[in-house]
Amino acid sequence: AAKSAGKGCFRFFAPDMHEAARQRQLLESDLRVALEKGELWLAYQPCVDASSEDVIGFEALIRWNHPERGSVSPVEFIPLAEEIGLINEIGEWVLRTACAEATKWPKHITVAVNLSPIQFKSHALPTIVRMVLNDTGLDPKQLELEITEGVFLNNDDHVHDMIDGLKAIGVKLALDDFGTGYSSLSYLQRVPFDKIKIDRSFVSGAHDPESRNAALIRAMVGLASDLKMQTTAEGVETREELALIRSLGCSLVQGYLFGKPMPPEEAQELAAKGSAALPAQLPWREPRI
Ligand code: C2E
Ligand code: MG
Ligand code: MG
Ligand code: MG
User: Which of 13, 99, 220, 284 could disulfide-pair with 136, CB 3.0 to 4.6 Å?
Assistant: First the structure.
């Protein structure tokens, strides 16, 4: 009966799950060759000093221009790369490309690279970082590595050895997406982070008096400052959010308000200019009725 009902009936027997699995498999095989085909590239988002509005660095964010699907989000393909064992290769490419790009910027401007927890499983991570810095000639002080709480889920010595190895090179360490994981805070005792990045989920709408996010941000900034770490507020989109972030003592901001992730040429221009200052805000005037 299904056959006589024609093509449309096929869906009844092949649930969406199958289609999703098939799509995933296609994406998987495409990802395996994306690097060789030059479909991956890095966008750079400025990180700005909250008070001076000077650009202090950029975060490298990976992009995939798929020939048929267009732009595929890293939220989709990074987990895939992790699952299929491609993340080490992609991660090293990101590191190398970002470091090479940053050598074109003024010396005080940093580049931040996101690392997957999987990259910590190998013993080679510090060696790879050292090698990439050597090959590109980037000053270790100019490189910041962003890691997430996920790295500490298995609180083992190996992870801490890798972190010590990275610190010994002289690179900076940032804790990304702080407050969103399920990890305990105990790793903060052991890991000398230079910076904590407060996730966008706390920043969005934090200026709303109804929101409890301001209290959480204040606590995170206090904790970080006691531990001699800087704080970056992620995902600042409005002047209201910026004003609040400043008042809470957060020293750095990143977000669409100051700049979206941009192609390398634009980042280089902005790095040379050095300022992301917003146009002065017109004074508020009483509306005439
Ligand atoms: P992340 O490291 O927390 O990066 C911040 C994300 O927030 C980026 O999304 C960025 O484009 C976005 N964002 C920044 N400012 C704003 C804003 O004002 N509003 C909104 N709505 N979004 C903002 P993106 O580029 O899609 O990256 C998503 C995640 O993918 C990253 O989160 C990171 O976890 C991962 N990722 C990106 N590139 C890499 C990479 O090279 N390696 C690894 N392992 N992960 C990466
Ligand atoms: Mg990040
Ligand atoms: Mg982040
Ligand atoms: Mg985030």
Answer: 99
